[in-house]
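Protein modeling request. Please complete all fields; requests missing the sequence field cannot be processed.
Requester role: graduate student
Desired output: 3D structure, token encoding
Chains: 1
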Amino acid sequence: MAYENILNNLKQTPPRALNDHILIIDGMNTLIRSFSLLKAMNPSGAHVGGLVGFLRSLGFVTRTFDPTRVIVVWDGKGGSGNRQNIDPNYKAQRATSRITHWGLYDSKEEEMEALIGQLFRVQDYLDCLPVQQIVMEKLEADDIMAYLAKRASSAGKKVTIVSSDKDFLQLIDQNVEIYAPVKKQTFTLDNVIEEIGVIPQNYNIVKALLGDNSDNLAGIKGLGIKTILSEWKSITHDPSFTLQDIYNLCEEKLGEKKVFAKIIHDFDKVERNYKLMNLHETVLDESEIEFIEASLKHPIPDLQTGAFLHMLDMDKIEGITKNTEGWLENFRGLTTVQ
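Delivered output (338 residues):
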């Protein structure tokens, strides 16, 4: 009888479709985090931390979330240009700041050369896996990822975004969740307010006011999250809340606190920050959308175990884990989804 029940359950469970659960990975975010944290060296003395860390992370999230499709999205060449046209300070600090802080590289130039080398090698490894990669010149990964997530969510499909970039928290809805690798936590509608203090739809308003150090965007001096939540209480739960509500209250209470005058004085900066960090309104043009849509129609690559292991041997990497062939089997299910 128990055997019959198992058979009946198998018959009742429909096969998973390709887009039922899409895992979208922020490629450069994952690579840079691994490159900066892992000091892994191969027997020849070459740093391979970015490469090893990326592949380990990829295997972990694929095993953990069991998606039906995996898409790695990369920043395109000149991807920050559109936003830098709006604000030249956007990510300006990244051109001079070092990624690693443990003395392996003698200069920023040497470090960048190594990072780019590991980037290209990671992409070679990904070509051996049933994983899709998307990159477009003059586009940041954020914009492509947001488009993919909103596209899938509107079709009722589940999406898991993997990134430590908190900008993506604004995209959380009934179908979209964010896995933050540094915190090792998945944020959903059930727990995200505990993290950011407001509903996801209003998170970009908060960030516009406070700024974002990682993107080199200054906020309003003297303003903190506690003041925002106490002065504009409805921002925590009202999806119709807008920047205009911020401005209106500042006008009403102009003489009560200095920070209200600061907000009005710098409101153009707040609006600019909001535009720069807003992932809900796509910046993609028609040709870019067509490119992404065409990429999604490409067949899922095969799992090439032999080629993958050969590259590990060439790079003198003694396995990503103790059982690399077993690790590769984590991706086998991606080749059977229709």
